[in-house]
Amino acid sequence: MSDPPSKKDHWTGEAYSASASFVPKLTDKIVSWLDPQPTDHILDLGCGDGALSVKIKEHCACITALDSSPNMISAACQSYGSTTSGLSWQVQDCRYVEDCAAVETEAYTKVFSNAALHWILRDPATRESVLRGAFRALEKGGTFAFETGGAGNVAEVHAALLAAVVHQGVSIERAREAVPWFFPSEALMKQLLEGIGFMVQRSELQYRPTRLTTEKEGGIEGWVRLMGALILETLSSVDKREAAIKEVCDVLSTILTHEEDNSMWLGYVRLRVLARKP
What we know:
By secondary structure, the chain is an alpha/beta fold.
């Protein structure tokens, strides 16, 4: 759930809970595709604060949960324990999972990821390596089940963020380079997976408007500060970053708000895939 390509750790359990607590809750379908069984050994790529990993562990033998954010792994350990039987937490940049010695070859019956691959696969230089790493980790016949942002995901805020930093003096080219997400189409993801050797058994692209949180540090402002941090960092001063955040929130206020109750909804598009290693 948190694997952006940056050395600075923008993630905290508190900020994630305030701005995106809905993420691990809206997972019934992809968990059903994963279909965890009592004998399963599962590798979780981009586990975030661990809430979903713990839920899945109730139905399988063990989970190895990886995330690039030390803050999020620390939050998981604090919430669920660092020595829970059958559940291990590891700080690992999943862009380099193919070469991770802790991930043994053909040691897992299933590989899983929720709301993380759009961060992990952002870098074209390591994109295929990530998928090869998942393939290597699986035993023959094992499955890779994941949900990620798909083509058109959060398009409103994506466009507003780009425009806001450009208005503060950043070139559009620099702004685009700073975008930390990869939102592929269903066809492109299938092409990438089959190129590695996976057999795609099922996939779907779903438009799923999602209600934003109402916590004090959440809502659209909290979402922009956390999820858009790398784009905002293209700006040279705090004042410019704050001005950009205000612009995004002002522009999106009427677009995202439902007048009947003043709730705010963001246009999430989810790509779900179940692939098998022959």
